[in-house]
Design a protein that fits this description.
Elements: E1 5-10, E2 17-22, E3 28-31, H1 38-51, E4 58-63, E5 66-72, E6 78-81, H2 88-101, E7 106-109
Parallel strand pairs: 1-7
Antiparallel strand pairs: 1-2, 2-3, 4-5, 5-6
Length: about 110
Amino acid sequence: MENPKFELYKSSANSQYYFRLKAVNGKITLSSEGYIAKQSCKDGIASVKQNAPDEQRFERRQNNGSYTFVLKARNGEIIGRSQSYTSPASRDTGIDSVKEDAPNATVDDLC
């Protein structure tokens, strides 16, 4: 089993930088928006590490039987989005995973 990690990568489609948080099982639990600058993407990872332990930073969402969450910074800006889950319970398990994994996850720079 791997340790939780952030993967920082550059999209060949739009040349923007992104990060994703992978849990110990290798599944992606959180993904970022695109960043123009690599340093801004690194700052986004730092913000996730700082905000993930705080339950109040997570916003649970539901749309047409799909359950998701977003992680917000103190200023209310979205810093990460989840995959879609089939139930509120599985979504909440995803949140718990991010809360536990993000603060100490390593960063793997794939650029």
